[in-house]
Design brief:
Helix content: under 10%
Strand content: 35-45%
Number of helices: 3
Largest sheet: 4 strands, antiparallel
Distance between the termini: 86 Å
Oligomer: single chain
Order of helices and strands: EEEHEEEEHHEEE
Shape: elongated
Mean pLDDT: 79
Low-confidence stretches: none
Radius of gyration: 37 Å
Length: about 230
């Protein structure tokens, strides 16, 4: 039985009485399937689906698991205990549910899902690296939930991508181009490339005439090629 309607799947409205251990009777308002993240004594976690779970609002935040209801499924479940631990097995396999004694009750051990509050750095990245001035309350109705800018905080990505760039000075502004053919030749060697060309070349060499800017490109197999 559970009192949290948000946990149910395939929920159906069902009215009926439920008798508790002290012989008192309360009313159920629905039935459905509930998933729990059950932990075992070996610290393994797996999702388990409990079917035909009753929704009993008057139980408040208390959820009860009935061993008698599990046995009635006739699916080979067995119960064992050791000290303050209780285990539910299925067909001699490792336990599927582990309970620990807490006061007078055995509490099913579950892995609780938790949400982590995002840091300012994570918000900054998620919103596309905006300036801190854009993460103020006058720009977002829920900006009060945003963390404050850390002291002396800097974003390396912003520094790299938003830095001011200066165009390099062209060599033609400081040097005079050659006026005679082949008086000055510029050449460069590139490679080794990870994938050879169709001609099995791993490098290529370029020659550029400074006067006409005419270029020649020759593929070569190795640097030692003459």
């Amino acid at each position: 039985m559970t009192s949290n309607l948000g946990l149910f799947r395939n929920f159906k409205t069902i009215k009926g009485p439920v008798r508790l251990g002290d012989d008192s009777v309360i009313e159920t308002c629905g039935c459905g399937t509930v998933m729990i993240l059950a932990k075992t004594s070996l610290r393994h976690v797996s999702s388990r689906y409990l079917e035909r779970v009753l929704w009993v609002p008057s139980l408040g935040s208390c959820s009860l698991l009935s061993w008698r209801a599990i046995v009635s499924l006739e699916k080979g479940f067995s119960l064992a205990s050791s000290g303050k631990d209780m285990y539910i097995f299925r067909e001699n396999k490792p336990e599927v549910i582990w309970g620990k004694l807490d006061g007078q009750d055995y509490v099913v051990q579950e892995e609780k899902e938790s949400a982590k509050k995002m840091t300012y750095e994570q918000w900054h990245e998620a919103l596309g690296h905006p300036s801190p001035d854009y993460l103020k309350s006058n720009n977002y109705s829920d900006a009060t939930n945003l963390p404050k800018v850390p002291q002396d905080w800097q974003c390396e990505i912003c520094i790299t991508s938003k830095s001011t760039k200066r165009k390099p000075t062209s060599t033609t502004d400081t040097e005079t181009r050659s006026e005679t053919l082949f008086e000055l030749i510029h050449f460069d060697l590139s490679g080794n490339f990870p994938q050879p060309s169709f001609g099995k070349s791993n490098y290529y060499v370029t020659f550029i005439d400074d006067c006409t800017r005419y270029a020649w490109i020759y593929p070569i197999h190795a640097k030692s090629t003459r």
